[in-house]
């Protein structure tokens, strides 16, 4: 944890004690000076006083002995006068003696005062000295505490290093185990082969099914010759080897970064790709303009989080208007798990620590009921995995794995190997959902999370299950890239409807194809190849434009185009620019970036054109209509659920281009949410974005804090590449960053070979 509070606190305390030391020293110095000044001043005063009194007495005396001319007429008179003056003189002397006595008293009193003052000063100096000693003692204790803290940190780091080393060892052990298992499996295959060669009649049985779903060799149509079969298998192995070698070589040659980002850029410098279009002054001005939104979006998060903490701590969801606990999704504190990494990214480390404590002590996976496999994966497993990826704390990985282990049995063990729509957390039993088959997005958007678990634990079972489901989806697509959102849930993989959409039910499958490729450092081209196919078909069949130039992604059902676009589909804007900047140059289609930018603009218009500046759930587009009339909001889809996809597209566009206009789009969305959705305990979904003062739904989905807030905040920070580097992380469909895996050459080859054999018609 990157808590700075302790360090800052002691820094402040040290500064304070330094100030106090200074003050004490100054006090001591000024005390001594004051004391000596006082003594000199008193002495000078006394001297002056004596001089004044003496002078005055002298004056008096000389005036009294003066003989006036008129009074010296004769001798007799002179005697009289002398006696008279002597009398006067005597009186004067007496008076003078009294004055001298008074003067002596004053001088004694003054010197007493001076002595007293000196004593007081000495006592004060003594006290100051003892205060300084106490300060020294405090400073020393603080130093000792800091030393202890440093030591503790070092020990924690050492612990993490040991943990990492252990993980590496475990991973290595698992790899060896895998290799062993593979070797055994191959031996089994060979002995089965040999048996079949020596007993050709068995071939008619059609073969058994191996435990892990890989088929044992069956006779290809029209080929019952055992020698030919053996030759074919050997050829297949040779091809697989050659394929694996090629993939390993290509991935080693991969540029690794086609985004235009300068890899040796220092933190705080503007990205080279941004500077190609904007001056440093323009970028600086944009960052300054966004600062208020950055601070505001952080406050927004804290406000909603505090409401949840106050009213629904530990619940899956909060109802932000009534302050009640919201829907139950598995009783796993879903809001906490989904928001962890946003806290980390926003540097809210105290809040993060508090949530981490809850994860460690209170999180339970014992809900007695069915929960959505997909939602639990993307929000809970993904949330925990991302908290692990960012903080490196093993508790998150431990809990993520615990949950995934409970969910694993819900992956079908036979074709099509999809995960069940729902899972019972106590028993691991799977069950169907509202749809008779499997939803495309549900089968094809759990891979990043499960693969991350395999990558960091070294246990391949999570990745195997998830990849197998993905390969089934690809099989179900036939020769195409696009596929209907309804898939069969039994038997060989196939689509059971023709409804093609990048909105609800389909969306994140396409997103995961691209991101799976990026997640393993571009070493598994099978995902990218399928994504490229899907993008080419999307471009040809679904990307449309209205007369006024609004570019959108239509849907297709039973061969007919439907001119509607879900808010959900806005993610495509971000996905296209991600592909354009992160794929090897030879794969990038020139139109991706501009189509991505245009879709992002349309999604922004979905907000901007409403009186609330909030977007509806879906819009219908009319390509033939005049400008301003080409986007229609249906009555049954006029609500805004605090969804993130437009903010997501804006974030990706900004991340790669640095264009200030994207910050302004995001700023407008942030302000609209603040104005219309803020309620007593958080932020609420609104009923109708067309109404200037919309009513509220009393719902705050967990993705508001997980995604919407994260994307907005990341768009407002000075440079998102310094906060979350997309060369290091890939974001899941719930915006959870998974650290990009860097497989070794041997791992790349093994994976490529497995993939080749998994797709081969005959094994
Ligand atoms: C999120 O849970 C995920 O982004 C999911 O893929 C689609 N729907 C919501 C957000 O709208």
UniProtKB/TrEMBL annotation:
Cofactor(s) in the UniProt record: Ca(2+)
A Pfam family per the record: Glyco_hydro_47
Calcium recorded as keyword: yes
Biochemical pathway: Protein modification; protein glycosylation
Stretches that traverse the bilayer: 38-59
Bias (Acidic residues) ranges: 202-211
Class of the enzyme per the UniProt entry, highest EC level: hydrolase
GO molecular function, one term: calcium ion binding
GO biological process: carbohydrate metabolic process
Region (Disordered): 191-268
Gene Ontology cellular-component terms listed: endoplasmic reticulum; Golgi membrane
EC number(s) per entry: 3.2.1.-
Keywords noted in UniProt: Calcium, Coiled coil, Disulfide bond, Glycosidase, Hydrolase, Membrane, Metal-binding, Transmembrane, Transmembrane helix
Protein name per the record: alpha-1,2-Mannosidase
Organism: Zooxanthella nutricula
């Amino acid at each position: 944890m990157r808590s700075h509070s302790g360090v800052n606190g002691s820094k402040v305390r040290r500064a304070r004690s330094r100030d106090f030391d200074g003050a004490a020293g100054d006090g001591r110095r000024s005390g001594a000076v004051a004391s000596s000044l006082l003594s000199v001043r008193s002495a000078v005063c006394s001297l002056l006083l004596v001089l004044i009194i003496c002078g005055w007495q002298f004056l008096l005396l000389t005036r009294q002995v003066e003989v006036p001319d008129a009074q010296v007429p004769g001798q007799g008179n002179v005697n009289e006068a002398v006696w008279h003056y002597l009398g006067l003189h005597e009186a004067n002397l007496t008076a003078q003696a009294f004055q001298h006595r008074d003067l002596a008293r004053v001088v004694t009193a003054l010197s007493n005062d001076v002595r007293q003052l000196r004593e007081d000063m000495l006592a004060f100096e003594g006290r100051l000295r003892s205060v300084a000693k106490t300060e020294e003692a405090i400073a020393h204790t603080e130093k000792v505490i800091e030393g202890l803290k440093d030591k503790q940190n070092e020990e924690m780091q050492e612990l993490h290093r040991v943990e990492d080393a252990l993980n590496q060892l475990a991973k290595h052990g698992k790899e060896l185990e895998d290799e062993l298992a593979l070797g055994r499996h191959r031996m089994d295959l060979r002995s089965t082969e040999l048996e079949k060669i020596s007993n050709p009649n068995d071939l008619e049985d059609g073969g058994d099914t191996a435990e892990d779903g890989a088929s044992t060799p069956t006779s290809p149509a029209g080929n019952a010759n055992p020698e030919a079969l053996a030759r074919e298998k050997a050829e297949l192995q040779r091809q697989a080897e050659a394929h694996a070698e090629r993939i390993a070589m290509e991935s080693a040659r991969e540029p690794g970064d086609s985004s235009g980002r300068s890899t040796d850029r220092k933190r705080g410098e503007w990205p080279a790709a941004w500077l190609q279009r904007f001056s440093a002054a323009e970028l600086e001005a944009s960052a300054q303009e966004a600062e208020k939104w950055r601070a505001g979006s952080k406050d927004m998060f804290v406000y909603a989080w505090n409401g949840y903490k106050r009213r629904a701590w530990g619940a899956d969801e909060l109802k932000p208007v009534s302050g009640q606990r919201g829907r139950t999704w598995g009783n796993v504190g879903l809001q906490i798990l989904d928001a962890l990494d946003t806290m980390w990214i926003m540097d809210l480390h105290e809040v993060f620590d508090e949530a981490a404590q809850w994860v460690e002590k209170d999180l339970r996976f014992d809900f007695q009921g069915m929960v959505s496999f997909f939602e639990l994966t993307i929000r809970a497993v993904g949330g925990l995995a991302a908290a692990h990826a960012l903080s490196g704390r093993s508790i998150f990985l431990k809990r993520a794995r615990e949950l995934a282990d409970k969910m694993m049995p819900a992956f079908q063990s036979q074709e099509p190997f999809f995960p069940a729509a729902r899972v019972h957390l106590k028993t691991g039993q799977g069950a169907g959902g509202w749809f008779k088959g499997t939803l495309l997005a549900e089968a094809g958007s759990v891979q990043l999370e499960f693969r991350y678990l395999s990558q960091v634990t070294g246990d391949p079972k999570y990745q195997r299950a998830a990849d197998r489901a993905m390969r089934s989806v690809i099989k179900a697509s036939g020769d195409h890239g696009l596929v209907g959102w309804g898939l069969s849930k039994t038997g060989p993989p196939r689509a059971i409807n023709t409804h093609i959409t990048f909105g609800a039910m389909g969306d994140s499958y396409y997103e995961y194809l691209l991101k799976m490729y990026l997640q393993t450092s571009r070493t598994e081209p099978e995902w990218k190849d399928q994504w490229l196919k899907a993008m080419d078909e999307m471009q040809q069949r679904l990307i449309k434009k209205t007369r006024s130039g609004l570019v959108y992604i239509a849907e297709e059902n039973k061969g007919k185009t439907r001119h509607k676009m879900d808010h959900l589909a806005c993610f495509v804007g971000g996905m296209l620019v991600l592909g354009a900047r992160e794929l090897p140059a030879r794969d990038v289609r020139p139109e991706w970036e501009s189509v991505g930018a245009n879709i992002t603009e349309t999604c922004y218009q979905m907000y901007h054109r409403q009186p609330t500046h909030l977007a509806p759930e879906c819009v219908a587009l009319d390509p033939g209509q005049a400008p301003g009339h080409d986007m229609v909001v249906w009555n049954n889809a006029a609500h805004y659920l605090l969804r993130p996809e437009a903010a997501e597209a804006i974030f990706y566009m900004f991340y790669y281009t640095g264009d200030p206009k994207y910050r302004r789009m995001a700023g407008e969305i942030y302000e609209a949410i603040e104005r219309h959705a803020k309620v007593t305990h958080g932020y609420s979904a609104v009923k109708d974005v067309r109404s200037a003062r919309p009513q509220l739904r009393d719902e705050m989905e967990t993705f508001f804090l997980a995604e919407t807030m994260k994307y907005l905040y990341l768009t407002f920070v000075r440079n998102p590449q310094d906060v979350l580097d997309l060369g290091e992380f890939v974001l899941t469909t719930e915006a959870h960053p998974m650290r990009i895996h860097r497989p070794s050459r041997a791992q790349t080859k093994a994976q490529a070979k497995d993939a080749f054999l998994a797709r081969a018609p005959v094994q």
